[in-house]
Design a protein that fits this description.
The complex is a heterotrimer.
Chain A lengths: L1 H7 L10 H6 L4 H31 L9 H37 L7 H20 L29 H30 L12 H33 L9 E2 L2 E2 L7 H34 L7 H14 L17 H27 L8 H24 L1 H7 L3 H31 L5 H28 L16 H34 L76
Antiparallel strand pairs in A: 1-2
Chain B lengths: L2 H6 L21 H30 L11 H24 L3 H31 L8 H32 L5 H26 L2
Chain C lengths: L1 H19 L12 H31 L15 H30 L6 E8 L2 E6 L33 E3 L3 E5 L4 E7 L4 E4 L6 E4 L5 E5 L5 E7 L11 E7 L1 H9 L4 H6 L5 H15 L19 H13 L9 H11 L4 H12 L14 H15 L19 H12 L10 H10 L5 H12 L2
Parallel strand pairs in C: 1-5, 4-10
Antiparallel strand pairs in C: 1-2, 2-3, 5-8, 6-7, 6-9, 9-10
Helix pairs in contact in C: 1-2, 2-3, 6-9, 7-8, 7-9, 10-13, 11-12, 11-13
The chains are: A mainly alpha, B mainly alpha, C alpha+beta.
Chain lengths: ~600, ~200, ~450
């Protein structure tokens, strides 16, 4: 019957023999996770440098000769694309998904280890192709990360020949890599849970990553389809997206194509993509908050339903990116309604995080600080989303700095704070050593306060009406000099926040050799990954016998139990009798 | 037990083994589950092509339908036969008739290659009558969609060739044959939908 | 503990920031005050939630921070509380959505009495078209667009003959009358946005989108493109002047109709020859230019550009800046070409002059210049040949010292600073990327090699 039989079956394990098979061509999900994470960080550094270049130009326009308009538009494009796809998506799914799913489900590895390895190498290939666009004639594409045609394919946009083609090819490879990884994550969660690990006993991290992967598998095809069609338009002069037009004074060889069609396909992928990044963050942060406040996550069932509901709704809100795109404006009514509807389950998640803290026993260590920073940032970013989701208000605020501020808060800073929380949280399991607490706190305070001082004023520049994606403003009558000054302060904050990440990188490297020994379960957490016989877990994770799960993932501070946490694989008779006569404690929230 | 009931269970109320929502469920090999997930992805790809196809017709006025070479009907029949052959191979493998498995695998593969050749002939006929890729979105979609479908079949043939190798080396191939069969049925179904779409415009 | 205090301070700080921030809506100049109202409603609702959630978060952290002697509550869920929170949130969301949808219903329904006019977005400029007396805009198509027909007018459509064409980044509109902007693009996506009007809408090649509004305040406002449209996106600026109906009518009457542009007489070379005598004194008999007299080469310059610049001199758009000594010398001479026909004649004559490359007088780092020129090439062409559809004149083979001078003038706004010089203003923004004289010399040296 169901999982019992599955858990007992033999899983082939390819025990690594040499250094090469152990660390390079590894099929171990933990090694692949680290490969994914390190690659994502490496490419993320490039994206950070690009953002600093933009900020330098915006603060001191035309002072720096190396940032001309071409470079600027290439920077915004590559920064956006790298951050959204090659960093955040790869890190949350390829990195955290790979590491956590088998460990949290109690499996020895992913169900298709070879394909998992292939997934990483294809991802690396896509990154290499993307980076190579910096070296080709004309440089990378400068069409904006949305790659809107006709612009992306025409002279007058940087990288309209080599750059855009390499970008599209790289995306196709990324999607192939993601699909191979995604098949693994979904199948592993469905098939490889250990004995007793029912769906509703899964930690929320697994739920978040699982749902994000499901959405990803459904919507990345939209990017694939639009990417292929656009490549045809570029290489074979078809007119899928390209209407009749004049380029550089001459009639281009196109007719009848529809740029709006591209936008629909792009945002059918692009909006769920936000949730591909956000749902894993939601899941992971729920587990971290619960662990460090020594209390079960409040409203676990609601949290699961919200993840599923958000995932489902995310498929029918895409056109809120297109209210003023020239599509039939009557669509606005439908999409504004669905968009604001999605705010409800999202708000529930925020309430439940905060209510988890209520009557908890909160340990304010570094992962928890980052998690609290996330709640604050995400609340802010989520609420500003209501301005943009509502069709009439969007008509004014869209394409201004308000949008830039909003999406950086909600899907830039907020998920990255979760990334940081997770790294401080799981580093002891991955390496066996703790990260340095002092450096961690420094990293947190500068990152948290720094990012807020970057993005809070930006909202107001948006209210003022300052358009985004402008290389320079010149003397524009409605833009006061104070707006130029605030750009300088934003840039300084950006440089500081970027620099402090070096401290974080140093901490990662330093603690690997010199960090305090962690022990198997430094946070006294309940979930399975902390119960492995070895730390870091060996190949195969569990030694000779797979774990058996007896309880849900959140048995913290159970009345009557000896400790304030009961690991998931601990049978009831070992805790102290009546630990679970507790279903009537719902009144804890007066 | 339905998924809804599973999702409504209160996991904290029922500690112990097995757990609150454990009865029922379908036991499938991992690879079958993986394949079904992949088929969903494939359906999404071709579904989106279909949507793009219809929207492109609606959003502009330059659509000039492309004639559908009659050979497509023959191709469709051949692909149906390929599917039937795989179904026979599956039946044979369950009865452990290795000889029949080999026979029907070869037949299935041959029909598939026949289908791909037929599609290629259809392309050649259209190109010869002057329906170039970039002349009209109808042409472009025709080549693009048939090409994408063909690529998926070629991917299937790679797995098929590995299965052939294994069966001739005398390895166990039950699961491989079952997977191939499912995949071919899926691609047949997708082709029929796509062919219907092409015919209807 | 510190984090709780910081959260409280951040909440208080954000509220204070809101009230002291000098950055808020520009004074509105259209009927879309209802959008501002909706934003304000959203602001107060979300602001309240922001304050409450975060203060509660801080409270939790203060009250329930870790203590060895205490245990957390065990509390899996509280259905009633969750239901209430869901309902309250849903009500709050509905309170935002309802006014938003009402305003949007207004936004998409164009009032019957609104007058159509057309906005044409092209890389990287604005043009406008008004229906003539028949009140109907003629048919257009991108495939008809050419240097003589930049609007792509359908020549056979009788409705188009009296259409009024504005080949200029500035448009005028009457105050207090609803207008419906029909938006058309000839190349890529653009977006017609005037911050003071609040509303904005993308312009999509291949279709006509629309946006209606009623100007309510007199003045001149900046039109911004707000959809990334290429490398000069940020300099795609225009102006809209809101004025009394009578002023508007007078302005409109002074603009040419499509029929006018068709019947405009071609320049007469023979007459032009006589008129050119005055020019030849400085610019040379073959229009080859003379650096000593600060007169640039004219031969080989595009007809449209020469015409435009002569008209700018005549109208005082050029040659009136107090620091533009050389332009001030040119202006009275341009004034001698008293009507459109004489401008056309002299320009026609210049087109007959032999086009030999001007001598090279400026040296610089050609490799660096080539790098800089990649930006310039987006408008002026890879070979510096000039591209009419972008209003970018030829650069290659013309007087390099003059080019360098003009780049300096654009940078210092001696040129391009006049409120009616829309195209010059765009060039000023672009010239800003040349951050010193060396950069100017480098790029001009590179242009010399083209």
């Amino acid at each position: 019957m169901a999982y019992v039989a599955i858990a007992d079956r033999q899983q082939e394990l390819h025990d690594p023999q040499s250094f090469l098979t152990k660390y390079v061509w590894s099929q171990d999900h933990k090694v692949i996770a680290i490969q994914y994470a390190l690659t994502a960080f490496a490419v993320g550094i490039v994206a950070v440098i690009l953002s600093n270049m933009m900020r330098l130009q915006l603060a001191w326009p035309n002072e720096f000769a190396f940032i001309d308009p071409q470079t600027y538009y290439q920077s915004i494009t590559m920064h956006g694309m790298i951050m959204v796809i090659y960093l955040l998506t790869a890190l949350f799914l390829g990195g955290f998904g790979n590491y956590l799913i088998p460990l949290m489900c109690g499996a020895r590895d992913m169900v298709f280890p070879f394909m998992n390895m292939l997934s990483y190498w294809v991802y690396l290939l896509s990154v290499v192709i993307l980076m190579s666009s910096f070296l080709v004639p004309g440089g990378p594409t400068g069409a904006g990360w949305t790659l809107y045609p006709p612009q992306a394919l025409l002279e007058g946009t940087p990288g309209s020949n080599w750059g855009i083609i390499l970008m599209l090819v790289s995306l196709v490879f990324f999607i192939v890599a993601f699909t191979m990884g995604g098949l693994n994550y979904v199948t592993t969660v469905l098939q490889a849970r250990c004995r007793g690990m029912t769906l509703m006993r899964l930690p929320l991290s697994v739920w978040g990553i699982f749902m994000a992967t499901v959405i990803g598998l459904l919507v990345f095809p939209a990017l694939l389809v639009s990417g292929i069609m656009m490549t045809f338009d570029k290489l074979f002069a078809t007119s899928f997206f390209m209407p009749a037009l004049i380029s550089m004074g001459e009639s281009a060889d196109y007719s009848g194509g529809s740029p709006i069609l591209f936008q629909h396909l792009f945002w059918f992928f692009g909006h769920p993509e936000v949730y591909i990044v956000a749902l894993p963050a939601f899941g992971v942060v729920s587990d971290i908050i619960s662990t460090h406040s020594r209390k079960n996550i409040f409203g676990y069932r609601m949290m699961v339903w919200a993840i599923v509901l958000i995932g489902g709704l995310s498929l029918i809100v895409w056109a809120h990116h297109m209210y003023v795109s020239g599509m039939n404006p009557y669509f606005g009514f439908f999409f504004a309604t669905t968009t604001l509807l999605i705010a409800v389950p999202t708000a529930i998640k925020v309430y439940n995080w905060v209510l988890t803290l209520w009557r908890g026993n909160i340990r304010l260590n570094v992962p928890m600080l980052f998690a609290i920073g996330f709640i604050f940032t995400f609340t802010h970013g989520g609420l500003t989303g209501l301005f943009l989701g509502n069709v009439a208000t969007d008509a004014t605020l869209t394409d201004t700095y308000f949008v830039v501020a909003h999406f950086h808060m909600v899907m830039g800073v907020a998920p990255l704070l979760v990334v940081m929380a997770s790294i401080y949280h799981w580093y002891p399991k991955v390496t066996g050593r703790m990260l340095n607490e002092k450096l961690g706190k420094l990293h947190f305070w500068v990152t948290f306060l720094g990012t807020y001082s970057i993005y809070l004023p930006m909202h107001y520049l948006g209210f003022l009406g300052i358009p985004r994606r402008y290389y320079a403003y010149g003397e524009t009558d409605f833009i006061p000099n104070s707006a130029v000054d605030v750009n300088i302060s934003i840039t300084i904050a950006t440089l500081i926040v970027s620099t402090i990440q070096l401290v974080f990188l140093f901490n990662l490297a330093y603690s690997y050799f010199r960090g305090k020994k962690a022990g198997p379960n430094p946070w006294e957490a309940t979930t399975l990954e902390w119960q492995t016989p070895d730390t870091p877990p060996q190949h195969g994770n569990w030694g000779p016998e797979l774990p058996t799960v007896y309880r849900w993932a959140f048995d913290y501070s159970v009345p009557g139990a000896v400790n304030d946490y009961i690991p998931q694989n601990q049978p009831s008779d070992e805790t102290t009798g009546d630990a679970h006569e507790t279903s009537d404690t719902g009144g804890g929230h007066q | 037990m339905s998924l809804i009931r599973k999702l409504r269970s209160k996991p904290w109320e029922t500690p112990g083994f097995p757990g609150p929502d454990t009865d029922g469920g379908v036991l499938l090999p991992d690879k079958k589950v993986g394949l079904w997930v992949f088929i969903v992805v494939m359906a999404s790809v071709f579904g989106l092509f279909t949507v793009a196809y219809n929207m492109r017709i609606e959003l502009a006025t330059d659509w000039i339908a492309i004639p559908k070479p009659p050979v497509l009907w023959l191709n469709t029949a051949i692909l149906v036969l390929a599917s039937v052959a795989f179904e026979r191979a599956k039946a044979a493998v369950h009865k452990k008739l290795t000889g029949d498995v080999k026979l029907w695998l070869v037949v299935g593969g041959a029909f598939t290659i026949g289908f791909l050749l037929g599609q290629y002939i259809a392309w050649q006929q259209l190109l010869a009558s002057g329906y170039a890729l970039s002349d009209n979105p109808a042409n472009a979609f025709f080549y693009l969609i048939t090409g994408m479908h063909g690529l998926h079949l070629i991917g299937g043939l790679w797995v098929w060739s590995r299965t052939m190798l294994r069966v001739w080396q005398g390895f166990e191939v039950t699961l491989s044959v079952e997977l191939c069969t499912t995949y071919w049925h899926a691609l047949l179904l997708i082709w029929i939908v796509l062919f219907g779409l092409l015919l209807s415009t | 503990m510190l984090i709780a205090i910081v959260l409280i301070l951040l909440v208080i700080g954000s509220v204070i920031f809101h009230f002291v921030s000098p950055w808020w809506f520009t004074p509105i100049a259209s009927n879309w005050g209802s959008i501002d109202t909706t934003i304000n409603i959203t602001f107060w609702v979300t602001g309240t939630v922001f304050i409450l959630v975060n203060l509660f978060l801080a409270l939790c952290i203060i009250r329930f921070r870790y203590s060895k002697d205490r245990r957390a509550d065990y509390n899996p869920e509280n259905k009633k509380l969750e239901l209430w929170l869901t309902l309250i949130t849903a009500a709050g969301v509905a309170a935002l959505l309802a006014p938003g949808l009402i305003v949007w219903a207004d936004f998409v329904e164009v009032p019957e009495d609104s007058a159509n006019f057309e906005v044409v977005g092209s890389q990287w400029q604005w043009r406008f078209r008004f229906p003539g007396e028949d009140g109907i805009l003629g048919l257009t198509d991108a495939k008809y667009i050419s240097i003589d027909n930049p609007f792509g007018m359908h020549g056979d459509d009788p409705n188009g003959q009296d259409d009024i064409l504005i080949r200029n980044n500035t448009v005028h509109l009457p105050i207090g009358e609803p207008v419906n902007a029909l938006l058309r693009s000839t190349d890529v996506l653009h977006n017609f946005a005037v911050p003071q009007f609040r509303a904005k809408m993308d312009i999509v090649p291949g279709l006509v989108s629309y946006m209606w509004f009623e100007p309510t305040r007199k003045g001149t406002f900046e039109i911004l493109c707000e959809e990334l449209c290429g490398v000069a996106h940020y300099s795609m600026r225009g102006k809209v002047t809101i004025e009394e109906r009578s002023d508007f009518d007078a302005w409109l009457a002074s603009q040419p109709t499509y029929a006018d542009t068709l019947t405009m007489p071609a320049g007469d070379v023979a007459t032009g020859l006589n008129q050119y005598a005055a020019c030849a004194a400085c610019h040379g008999t073959n229009g080859e230019g003379n650096q000593q007299l600060n007169a640039p080469k004219l031969a080989g310059m595009e007809t449209w550009y020469l015409t435009q610049q002569l008209n700018h001199y005549k109208a005082g758009i050029r040659g009136t800046h107090e620091d533009d000594i050389l332009g001030q010398q040119m202006r009275p001479l341009a004034m001698t070409l008293f009507d459109d026909a004489s401008v056309a004649n002299v320009v026609a004559y210049i087109q007959t002059l032999p086009d030999n490359p001007a001598p090279t007088t400026i040296q610089g780092d050609i490799r660096r210049g080539a790098q800089i020129y990649t930006t310039c090439a987006s408008c002026h062409g890879k070979n510096g040949q000039g591209i009419w559809s972008i209003n970018a004149p030829r650069q290659a083979g013309m007087s390099d010292w003059y080019l360098a001078n003009q780049l300096r003038n654009f940078k210092s706004r001696i040129r391009g600073g006049h409120p009616d010089d829309g195209f010059g203003w765009q060039m000023s923004l672009m010239a800003d990327i040349l951050n010193n004289d060396k950069a100017i010399n480098d790029v001009v040296a590179y242009i010399n090699t083209l």
